Amino acid sequence: MSLRIVFTYPWALEIPGGGPEDYCQTANHLRAAGAEMILLPVASSGPNHFPRPRLSESQKRNWQEEGLIDRSLKVKQVEQNSLHYLLDGLSIKKALLEILAEQPVDAVLGWQQEIAFLPQLLRSHGVIFGMIASNGHYKEWYNGSNRARKYLRDLTVVRKFRQADVVFARSNFMRKLIIELFDLNEQRVDVSYCGIAPAFSKIERVAQAKVSRFIYYGSFSHEKGIFDALEALGRVAAQGERNWTFRIAGWGEKARVHQVAYENGIETRIEMRGHLDQSELVRELEWAQVAILPSYAESFGLACAEAQAAGLPVIGYDVGGVPEIVENGITGWLTPKGQVNRISAAILEAIKKPQQTFQMGLAGRERVNELFSWSRTAESMLQKIEALKKTKMPD
To answer: Which sign does the torsion angle of CA 372, 374, 375, 381 carry?
Structure first.
């Protein structure tokens, strides 16, 4: 008999970023591995200080056609709380009670604050409680709060991690971080890497005589490093290397991207590509020769892994889970966080050594294909849940 798993999520699925993709692909592959999946993402119920848009039926159909959401997944959008997003857990609890009234549930997987009111309910029904740890900014998020906010975060999130039967961390870095930061029982924390869509590994790579095509994709924010990338390329241009193009895809502070490019004298060298779906991203990665992704924090580093699967060497910072994906000097260049001069030096090396750059990309593809697989991740998660279920069964 297959496991029935309810999977909650605190935000709307169409919000851009790696989180929704991680969530949907985890659900898809748990389903493919044999579990019955019921998804409970939080959606908007109208005007609110913390609005979360709804997943429209047309968007849902598009995602099904693109393979982002499996057609057999049951998606029940939960109305957000009108008072505050920290109370969305009440809406999740209500939705879960309705499910439990109709059918038994083996496990509930949660993401963050949306599970705030679930542990006692789950214990009373003998349901396994699991959480996904995928926030590379947990340390800043927790320690950087004032006393009141830290208390609320401890109450709604941190204590839930401690109460979970199992926590699936997206990297060894993430596992170590949450064990130490949240004082977790290390026996309850498993490493559960993200997988990579097969489309990226199918991109054909051909060696080129020169390196001149760079790409960044992700949020246009300081934390994701886009402005460091622009500054680094400005330094490259100042040294006389200007025969290149930098394509920028994503969402966020677009006007600031143009401003920083102008301030660094490279406004004519950038091309904006907007927010890309997977097929569009595949085409852009096929065009590119090097990915510049100097993020300041990553629980895993999905963009880095996608770039490596596409056969691109990655230039970035040695932070979070990134070193578990990018092998410095072998599949890309990793530098200390915030050292823009080291990013520009890596770009110059990539330009001056095209054959080495090409081989680094191929080595990255081989590494990623060997280490990261959604199907392996889903199967290991199910094995853990099934083992926990046996311990909860009455003698």
So the answer is: positive
